Every structure is written in C-alpha cells, then in structure tokens.
Amino acid sequence: MFKYHKLCSIFLIIFIFLSYLIKSHIFIYYGCSQEKFQPNTPSETNLNSLLSLFVSSSSQALYSSYAIGNDTNASSESSVYGLYQCRGDLRTQDCAKCIKEAVSEVGLACPYSYSGSLQLNECLVRFEHYDFFGELDTNLRFKKCSKSVSHDVEFIKRRDDVLSELGEANQGFRVGSEGLVQGFSQCLGDLNPNDCSSCLGEAISKLKSLCRSSEAGDVFLAQCYVRYWASGYYNSPPESSGENHEVNKLAMHACKGGVSNEFEAKLDA
Questions:
Q1: Coiled coil where (predicted)?
Q2: All domains of the chain in start order, with CATH
Q3: pTM (2 decimals)?
C-alpha cells in the first residue's frame, strides 16, 4: 500500500509541475517499499541484474517479466521479481529509450528498496521481492481530471462510448475514438484476459466517479490504466526531453535521503 511522506511529496510535486510546464507530462507516479536492503548484498546484485535485463530486452519487446535469485539454493529475501511494459503503440526503439530512463529514475527514487514501481507517460517498471505475476491488483495509483464540461451532453455520450470500447482491451492495449473524443487503455502483460477485463472495468468505474464530466481524465491502477481526452486537449508527446528528466532527477535526489516510506506522487488538474 502506498503511503505519503508529506514534505517529500510536496517537494516532488512542485518539481513535477515545473517539468510539466517545461515539456510534456512525462512523469506519472512512483512508489517504494519501506523495507531496505544493505549495499553490496545479493539483493543489490540481483536487482541490478534485473534492471539491466529491462534495458537490454526493451529494444526487442514491449513487455517482459523476470525472476532472479529464486532458485532453491538462494535466500528468498534476495530474490527479485520484476517486469517492464511500454505503451502498446510504441516502436521498440522508443520503448528502449523510455525503459532506460525509467530504470535510471527508479534507481534514484527507490535506492536499496525491496519493492518499487515507476510509471512514465509511455512505460512502466516494477520490481518486488515476491512473486506477484498474474495477481490482480486494482489499487489506485494515480488520477488526473481536467475541467468539467457538464453542459455538453453530446460530449459525455461520446466519452462514455469511447470508455465502453476501451473496456474491451482484454488482450492488452486498445485505442478508441468517437467524434472528437479519443482514448486508450492498457493492461499489464502478466494479466489473463478475464483479469484484464476486471481491471479495466474498475478503472473505468473510478474514472467516471472521480472525473465525472471532465474534458479529459486519466486513471492508473496497479495493473491497468484508462485515459481519454477531447481532440486537441493534449499535444502529441515530444521526443524525450533531457531537461524535463533532469528536473525529475533533482526531485528524486532530494527525496531519497532518509525516506523509507512508500508514497504516490499525484498531479491532479
């Protein structure tokens, strides 16, 4: 469960907001475990190996999962399970760029953590010290809602039609549009089709209840997300911005010292 460390969260949110003004909204959320391991231990070695696998594999596939140190002779405490996933419409070369950045940032955000996850606009990395693969988790990680357009009945109808279409992405990734309303949805690759449908149904339910009649809305659950917007609301994401990521890194450097609580960073409109 993700908890807030108030001072650090406020500091991080300020920096994320600045990065949003500089370029696109690339950073979404991250969370780290309270438990830490010691440097120069098998846990550190295994985690570094896992993160290296993420980087090397992402140039070949948009999703992969791995388990390291889980053989019978290894300590269960040093075992690490992890996955990465890129948005389903990315090219592998763009996926590789995103995963490389996510791995770098999760290392800054979650030093020596047994568990961690970090979501960027186009990709996610997650690791745990237990086998979490295929376990349905619909806990809310992030939500963002724009201004309301409650007077526009036609927009709400088209929005609901798009969300119904996005709820059918039980094979992983789906894009939908209806008139001027667009959106996409995605499940993590470790979910089976039934659990993917359940996760998307929960995400859509939360999106409607939290964002109501917003012109645009995002809901990220632990294993799926749904996003919609009015045409033209978002500009096309630019190429990965060095200055934007440097701002995120500064925030994470400031937050990592002495912080052991898990927390979720939110930027709600």
A1: none
A2: 6-134+237-256 (3.30.430.20), 147-230 (3.30.430.20)
A3: 0.78
